[in-house]
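Hey,

Quick one before I head out. I ran the complex with zinc ion overnight. Inputs first:
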Amino acid sequence: MSVLPILKWPDPRLSQLCDPVGADEDVDQLISDMLETMYDAPGRGLAAPQVGVMKRIFVMDCGWKDGDMTPVICINPEFVTRSDDLVTGEEGCLSIPDAPADVTRPERITLRWRGLDGVVVERALDGFEAKCAQHEYDHLDGLVIFDRLSDEDRARIEGAYLEALT
Ligand code: ZN
């Protein structure tokens, strides 16, 4: 396993649509590297494009900072349901260090994905898990937290982030 470099915004690869993973594609090594990278960061979610691999895969582990490691590996995830109820909460991103933003998203989702063993999993998520999964899913569509903000908030928060880079 190895820790991979995490791309930082505004790397153009973070704005690209990712490709589905083929049924016979071997992504075991990639996923083990993604998990190691996420825990090392340390973060609670990481999407493949954040390490420069344009594939529809993300990993997350929402509780490990408070207890045991329980990694969730999502290959080709898709939303089955998204609640009409919305919730706003602060989100950070490993690709956008030190620039958290309040993002509004559906409060509850049902997500379907393929696990590492090829088994299709469907799970209802709420709370932090729902927020994290939607954040990581956005990366697969080339979207980051800045893309979820009003023009005014984006100009302020992204502006300060870009300013700090120079
Ligand atoms: Zn992110």
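Strands lie at 45-47, 57-60, 72-82, 86-93, 96-106, 109-114, 120-125.

Talk tomorrow,
K.
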